[in-house]
């Protein structure tokens, strides 16, 4: 089984979501929960971005001992110095430095030639290595970079001492087959690739962030990056909870495993949602309120007979007590009977039939029926006559 290193960037890329601004205490609370979840690396912030970011990265680096803490820097000495100031207190100081490699970024943003980009990347990694034992280099917009050139940059930064090389699909442009093919190419063509971890970092602009991350793992990525609830710049980053559950549920397919404790996922998701104010849609995979809710009678009947008929993930796996049979107009007698027994009512067949008719009448008018609706109905039925 291949080991996958999990790199969480909820506090850095995730915090770049429009409208999100976490204070120091909130960041610390999320970092502690990420430590409980068992991610390997926490990207705590971007120390050169603001004094507040430097302070919170430093505080997290001082507090968290069960995960490695990193911070982001541009390819500049000033940024690397700020990151060192924040991270030197960490148990295992680690820097994440990035430089764009794609033609669009080279031409319009950096105004640099290919040779200048390679030279800058090498100089930056060498400088970072004078402070940090672990240096991750990200080729920003790798997804739209010429493969040959990407190979050249990655080979050069590994020679300069990078211990992790990250291949971001910065703008969420690629399809899973294309993103996976980049990893296969780099595995095959970069001569020193075994000296570094190869990392996937995906954005969700076309809705493929999780699929692309998994395609990268299939094709040789040994580190995967993402955020809780998939929060992040624009349409967000790859949702870590979905990647982790995929690796667990389809271990037969991926033949890879991560060290995270999945039963902390629901709790982590709720904490991030409440502190960022970014609510999780009810139908979101793994952590949505409806992810374990069964409404239709056929499904409820199946689940009551054998859970796996309609449930591939057990709610307990992600830290929930049980699944939820939501009683609505599609629900059947079996689910109603179970719910009434749970509420302490042992009904005869005749009483159940009478209640079921009233239940369907009310369900036509109301989307979901709650326990107090059922209790009111039962007292209105033959049971009390
Ligand atoms: O998406 C991206 O390219 C990034 C880099 C800074 C790694 O977040
Ligand atoms: Zn990103």
From TrEMBL:
Question: What does the record give as EC number?
Answer: 2.3.3.13
Q: What is its pathway? A: Amino-acid biosynthesis; L-leucine biosynthesis; L-leucine from 3-methyl-2-oxobutanoate: step 1/4
Residues binding Mn(2+) are 13, 201, 203, 237
Select a single GO molecular function from the record's annotations and give it.
2-isopropylmalate synthase activity
Relate the assembly described in the record.
Answer: Homodimer.
Protein's job: Catalyzes the condensation of the acetyl group of acetyl-CoA with 3-methyl-2-oxobutanoate (2-ketoisovalerate) to form 3-carboxy-3-hydroxy-4-methylpentanoate (2-isopropylmalate).
Q: In its UniProt entry, what is this protein called? A: 2-isopropylmalate synthase
Organism equals: Caldalkalibacillus horti
């Amino acid at each position: 089984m291949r080991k996958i290193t999990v790199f969480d960037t909820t506090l850095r890329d995730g915090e770049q979501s429009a409208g999100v601004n976490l204070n120091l205490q909130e960041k610390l609370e999320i970092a502690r929960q990420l430590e409980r979840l068992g991610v390997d690396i926490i990207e705590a912030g971007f120390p050169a971005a603001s004094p507040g970011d430097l302070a919170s990265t430093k505080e997290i680096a001082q507090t968290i001992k069960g995960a490695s803490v990193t911070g982001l820097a541009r390819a500049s000495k000033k940024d690397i110095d700020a990151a060192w100031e924040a991270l030197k207190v960490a148990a295992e100081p680690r820097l994440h430095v990035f430089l764009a490699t794609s033609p669009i970024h080279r031409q319009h943003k950096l105004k640099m030639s290919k040779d200048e980009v390679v030279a800058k990347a090498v100089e930056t990694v060498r400088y970072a290595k004078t402070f940090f034992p672990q240096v991750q280099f990200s080729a920003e917009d790798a997804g739209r970079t010429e493969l040959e050139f990407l190979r050249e940059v990655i080979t050069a930064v590994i020679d300069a001492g990078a211990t992790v090389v990250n291949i971001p699909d910065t703008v969420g442009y690629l399809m899973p087959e294309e993103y996976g093919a980049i990893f296969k190419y780099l595995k095959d063509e970069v001569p020193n690739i075994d000296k570094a971890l190869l990392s996937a970092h995906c954005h969700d602009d076309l809705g493929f962030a999780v699929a692309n991350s998994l395609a990268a793992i299939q094709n040789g990525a040994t580190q995967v990056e993402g955020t809780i609830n998939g929060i992040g710049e624009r349409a967000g980053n790859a949702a870590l909870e979905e990647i982790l559950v995929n690796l667990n549920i389809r271990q037969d397919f991926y033949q890879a495993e991560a060290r995270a404790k999945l039963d902390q996922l629901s709790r982590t998701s709720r904490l991030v949602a409440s502190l960022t104010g970014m609510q999780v849609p009810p139908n979101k995979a793994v952590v949505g309120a409806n992810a374990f809710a069964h409404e239709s009678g056929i499904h409820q009947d199946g689940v009551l007979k054998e859970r796996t008929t309609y449930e591939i993930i057990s709610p307990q796996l992600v830290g929930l007590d049980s699944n939820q049979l939501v009683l609505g107009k599609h629900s059947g007698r079996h689910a109603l009977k179970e719910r009434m027994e749970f509420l302490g009512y042992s009904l005869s067949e005749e009483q159940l039939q009478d209640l079921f008719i009233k239940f369907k009448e009310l369900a036509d008018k109301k989307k979901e029926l709650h326990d107090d609706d059922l209790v009111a109905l039962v007292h209105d039925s033959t049971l009390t006559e």
